[in-house]
Amino acid sequence: MANKGTSHGPRNRRAVALWLPAVALVVAAALVQPVPALAQDDDGGWEWRATIYAWLPDIDGTTRFPTGGGTDFTVDAGDLLSNLDMTFMGALQARKGRWGMFTDVLYLDEGASRTGIRDIGLGPNENLPADVTVDVNFDLKSWVWTLAGTYNLTGNDESPVDLLFGTRMVDMKQRLDWRFNGDIGDLPLPGRDGSSEVSGTNWDAIVGLKGHARFGTGDRWIVPWHLDMGLGDSDFTWQAMAGIGYQFGWGAVVLNYRYLDYDLDSDASIADLTFSGPML
């Protein structure tokens, strides 16, 4: 089973998370799109900003599916996924003075059917025999929820820099249905066809920075950015986003690139997940 993060121990990952704020101030890259306040009192009351977005990420990661026959299938989601079945994505931010809170919710339901494939690992280090292929149905459902407090470090509403501190949850369920073609011989499997399902939920503490800059006539062009890192149930997780947008009277339209990475427990069924792609 692939484990991209095994060269970095948990102690090193914790050290990285501790110096995140300093690095983020220098590197600064991507999340909340600024849009006009939905409601703001003249006396300095609560200000609300809402975002609805579309993010169609490439999903890459390694999953080990137990077959019940003394061995496992190792599957790379990036090699199988091809279409989106359902999604919901949105963010909400509230602020009063320098303090605020932020939440972001992402739901993805993706699936694919493939025939005659051979890119499935069998057991820890064994490939399929040369004359055997597999027909598969693969389904992935995932929730990613961020809930955090914020503090405006600059006190500037036009080009703010906010400290972000909170938690992120990822909940994933993957199902694999398979059917072998060819002579499977004495392979340690329960039968020519079958199905298996794995799932997991991880909570991680995160810290980071986010903000946006403005430029151009009337400061209508905006550059949002976000960077966070954390750990907890995951060995290590980090997220980055940056983009460019234009402010209209009713709101803003922004095009970002977003990257979310999870280094999970090497002994878990689901490991090393990555979400990456453009976001509108």
Describe the structure.
There is one protein chain. The chain has 280 residues and is mostly beta strands. It is built from three helices and 13 strands; from the N terminus they run ααβββαββββββββββ. It has helices at 10-18, 20-27, 77-80; strands at 47-52, 58-66, 72-76, 83-96, 99-117, 121-122, 133-152, 161-181, 193-215, 221-232, 236-247, 252-263, 270-279. The radius of gyration is 22 Å and the shape is elongated. The protein starts with 9 loop residues before the first helix and ends with a strand. Mean pLDDT is 76; it is low at 1-42.
Task: Give the strand tally.
Answer: 13
Distance between the termini: 34 Å
Mean pLDDT: 76
Q: Which strand order spans the largest sheet, edge to edge or round the barrel?
A: 1-4-5-7-8-9-10-11-12-13-2-3-6
Shape: elongated
Strand content: over 45%
- SSE pattern: HHEEEHEEEEEEEEEE
Taking Cα atoms only, what radius of gyration do you get, to the nearest Å?
A: 22 Å
Work out the helicity level: under 10%
Largest beta-sheet characterization? 13 strands, antiparallel
Low-confidence stretches: 1-42
The helix tally amounts to 3
> Structural class of the secondary elements?
mainly beta
Give the helices and strands, then pairings.
Blueprint: H1 10-18, H2 20-27, E1 47-52, E2 58-66, E3 72-76, H3 77-80, E4 83-96, E5 99-117, E6 121-122, E7 133-152, E8 161-181, E9 193-215, E10 221-232, E11 236-247, E12 252-263, E13 270-279
